[in-house]
Amino acid sequence: MVAVMWFRRDLRLEDNTALKQALLESDKLILLFHVNPAQFLDENSLNMSAFFNSVETFRKKVAEEGATLQIVYGELEEVFKKLKEKVPDWSDIYVNRDESGFGLERDKKAGEMFQELDVSAHGFHDHYIHSAQEIKTNAGTPYKVFTPYYNKWKERPKPGIIETDFSSKTCLKDKLFPEDMNKFQELLDDLALLPDLELGTDKAQERLDEFIENDLAQYEEARDFPLKDATSRLSKHLRTGELSIRTVYNKVMDANQTKGRSTFIQELAWRDFYNMIYASHPDQKDVAIKKAFTKVEWDNNEENFKAWKEGKTGFPIVDAAMRQLNGTGWMHNRLRMITASFLTKDLLIDWRWGERYFQEKLIDYDSASNIGGWQWAASTGTDGVPYFRIFNPTTQSERFDKKGDFIRKFVPELNHVQGKKIHQPEKLTEKEQKEYNVIIGKDYPNPIVSHKNKRKLAIKAFEKSKKVM
Ligand code: FAD
């Protein structure tokens, strides 16, 4: 039987459910990645750049193993029809299914198309520890709150690593569409450059081992402090699937290190939870889950939005975080919470604007987690932060970057500022400004809003929406 293994966000030859099955059941196997123009943002998007560089790293890995990753480029129907014309005896296709968002819609269309092409499609659950359908309330409905979901999640038996003995023996080596490969290379050349991306399965495995060895034990105490860099940084590998979630789970569980483990595993459960939420609220990218907050009157001031994006709000922790995002494509979790809260509450800017900006910039962009995180911070999501409990950016800064060294790392204008005023540089006296070589209002902005006033306005806006609904 001639089959296709269609890779999407499972860019690895190890612990891969669909690939294992495809290798077992086919006589000849075509390894394929489809570059779909419908999925591109723009070429300046760090998200796209990182994703396609992962694909390229995977293509090279497959070549090292003596096989070819066929890159096909174009609209969905066009490319698979073209493939069928080229390989008329192609009869089966193997995929790891998507359960939400763009991937789910694409898979529905693809399913119909494969029927027309007389190709049997085999779909597998692979991307999460537990699929969106697995953990339900006793009434069979999706959970709305994380804690009871997690209690059930913990009790469920966990999947082991799926041993996938990859061999290129039955894989097609000829390049079927060299012109598409060229187009893909051109796309790579045009994409925004990011240094030191460290992508691919080998790097991901190394990072996982290092994390277990060096950071897991301190994870619980250290994970909230951006400067400590104490989290796993595995998100960029998990979203492309160059690392399997089962490998992460099982290696962490098998490690000698037990300290920090349950807190880390709980984060993996959040990933499953948000996937389940997205699957049960397919319009979640555009619509607030909490109906009471669908009528919030956002201020949506363009100038404030620009200042937030550029890291020029006059709130050092927010600015440092946004500059970390713009410069590296990644932002620490605590800072994602602070910047998202600041945008939606202090600036009263629509969470969808922020969600889309993160989509453009994050090298670990994952729709379910990003939308979930934004709706959480905006209080519009299921189990979100209560609308009246608004983060104070200054106290957050004092607590999680006490000495201000994270701020200094990303906001060089404040490099010489000493003491507590690093968190509120607008309080520096003229003498101090001279001493620290920064003029507030010129070298570094005054705060663009008053947190005290904006906090009250945000609460009013949410309460007004509640009354209208
Ligand atoms: P670790 O702390 O080492 O956690 C291990 C893994 O657990 C992560 O790689 C991730 O897969 C998962 N995880 C941890 N925290 C969460 C969480 N709160 N929700 C879901 N999964 C989690 N995560 C993304 O992967 N992609 C996104 O686009 C994304 N956008 C976010 C937007 C906002 C506004 C917020 C508040 C959070 C967002 N997160 C997102 C969740 C979290 O910030 C990142 O997963 C985490 O910072 C990644 O770093 P790490 O791998 O070092 O995490």
Please report the distance between the alpha carbons of the first and last residues.
57 Å
Radius of gyration: 24 Å
Q: What fraction of residues sit in β-strands?
A: 5-15%
Q: Largest sheet, if any?
A: 5 strands, parallel
CATH architecture of the largest domain: Orthogonal Bundle
Q: What is the CATH fold-level name of the largest domain?
A: DNA Cyclobutane Dipyrimidine Photolyase, subunit A, domain 3
SS elements, strand count:
5
Q: Overall 3D geometry? A: globular
Mean pLDDT comes to 96
Would you identify the regions where 5 or more consecutive residues have pLDDT less than 50? none
Small-molecule components bound: flavin-adenine dinucleotide
CATH top level label of the largest domain: Mainly Alpha
How many DSSP helices? 20
Keywords: Chromophore, FAD, Flavoprotein, Lyase
GO biological process, one term: response to light stimulus
Family: Belongs to the DNA photolyase family.
GO molecular function: deoxyribodipyrimidine photo-lyase activity; DNA binding; FAD binding
Structure description:
The chain is of the alpha/beta class and 469 residues long. It contains 20 helices and 5 strands. The chain folds into 3 domains: 1-126, HUPs (Rossmann fold, 3-Layer(aba) Sandwich); 128-160 and 200-280, Alpha Horseshoe (Serine Threonine Protein Phosphatase 5, Tetratricopeptide repeat); 291-468, DNA Cyclobutane Dipyrimidine Photolyase, subunit A, domain 3 (Orthogonal Bundle), CATH 1.10.579. It has helices at residues 17-25, 46-64, 76-86, 101-116, 146-155, 178-190, 201-215, 219-222, 235-240, 245-254, 261-280, 302-310, 316-328, 333-346, 351-361, 367-377, 393-400, 405-410, 430-435, 451-468; strands spanning 2-7, 28-35, 69-73, 90-96, 120-124. Strand 4, helix 4 (101-116) and strand 5 form a beta-alpha-beta unit. Helix 15 packs antiparallel against helix 16. The protein is globular. The N and C termini lie far apart (57 Å). It binds flavin-adenine dinucleotide.
